[in-house]
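Consider the tokenized backbone below.
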């Protein structure tokens, strides 16, 4: 539809900056007073793994982009990585019937989540698939019969994981280098993200950036918000608005679901906050009891001094939905008591687990 628009010229090629507000694409030079960089990010490939660079051409090694397009479900799938991409695809292919082995360098999956949530997720995932925790991937070999992934643990003991397909899920990086943005005078941080201010403006006047190329959160809902900010500021330069990057939530659509917003308990303690913490089991509510759920919980972290929530973390069914009232409270500045007692909580809905967690914090403000 972009190519059909009368006021849009679509170039199906890679653009590169050659000077401030000047691009080269398909052999042409393009200049404009206003430019928006929304070039996204791409999957990484660890250079430290011997043989991996050569293995990509075999058709048996994939990243999160290409594995969505394979024709058949592999009987055996190996995954390198322990973050949300690894967790989600491990769940998907395990549900499809694949024998999944996940090679995790750390001692648990989702290690950037609150430790309580990460621990519970790792325990749950270990019941559905093989987890090789504390293992580093040393070498990858491919052949007609599959993939051989050589790994070793902290003691140096080696083993080989044999699979039909290998998924490399070791993170993403911004595409700023492919645009050669430095040639356009645009500043980057050490990780390659385009530096922007609160108005999504780069270091060059008239050039804006949004999404994964400038946002370390690398979340679609954050990119959507930033796009609305950039659109407004382009159309209303005399009344610009700022992006709101407070209380940014995320979810992991694995099994079980995980959702989080704000600080973990460890982060709050490291900041010197007077912290109150509550962990509420789903099973303490009527709905959770009826589900016979024994593993899911809501964990809240709050400031005893102000009564404000600092973070919320949920693992279990509907986690990505249950987190929403916590996000709203943090975004609007509701105190624990205002949120817990300033509204009705439907009985016997599962949201009562959030209400009970709030009350369990023991904060009366």
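A designed sequence for it:
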């Amino acid at each position: 539809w972009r190519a059909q628009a009368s006021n849009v010229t679509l170039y199906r090629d890679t653009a590169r900056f050659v000077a401030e507000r000047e691009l080269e694409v398909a052999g042409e030079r393009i200049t404009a007073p206003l430019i928006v960089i929304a070039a996204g990010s791409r999957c990484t490939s660890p250079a430290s793994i011997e043989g991996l660079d050569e293995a990509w051409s075999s058709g048996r090694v994939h990243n999160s982009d290409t594995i969505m397009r394979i024709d058949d479900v592999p009987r055996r799938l190996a995954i390198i990585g322990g973050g949300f991409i690894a967790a989600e695809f491990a769940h998907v292919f395990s549900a499809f019937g694949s024998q999944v082995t996940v090679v995790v360098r750390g001692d648990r999956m989702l290690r950037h989540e609150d430790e309580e949530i990460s621990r519970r997720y790792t325990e749950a995932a270990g019941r559905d698939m093989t987890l090789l925790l504390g293992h580093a991937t040393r070498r990858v070999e491919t052949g007609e019969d599959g993939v051989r992934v050589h790994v070793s643990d902290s003691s140096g003991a080696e083993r080989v994981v044999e699979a039909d397909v290998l998924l490399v899920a070791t993170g993403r990086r911004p595409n700023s280098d492919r645009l050669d943005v430095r040639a356009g005078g645009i500043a980057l941080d050490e990780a390659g993200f385009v530096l922007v201010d609160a108005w999504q403006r780069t270091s060059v006047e008239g050039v804006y950036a949004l999404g994964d190329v400038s946002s370390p959160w690398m979340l679609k809902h954050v990119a959507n918000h930033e796009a609305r900010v950039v659109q407004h500021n382009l159309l209303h330069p005399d009344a610009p608005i700022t992006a709101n990057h407070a209380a940014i939530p995320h979810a992991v659509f694995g099994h079980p679901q995980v959702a989080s917003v704000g600080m973990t308990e460890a982060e709050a303690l490291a900041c010197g906050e007077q912290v109150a913490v509550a962990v509420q089991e789903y099973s303490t509510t009527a709905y959770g009891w009826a589900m016979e759920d024994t593993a899911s919980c809501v964990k809240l972290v709050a400031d005893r001094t102000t009564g404000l929530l600092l973070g919320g973390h949920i693992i279990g069914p509907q986690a990505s939905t249950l987190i929403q009232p916590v996000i709203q409270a943090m975004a609007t500045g509701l105190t624990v008591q205002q949120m817990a007692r300033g509204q009705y909580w439907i009985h016997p809905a599962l949201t009562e687990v959030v209400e009970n967690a709030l009350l369990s914090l023991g904060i009366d403000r």
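The longest strand covers residues 135-143.
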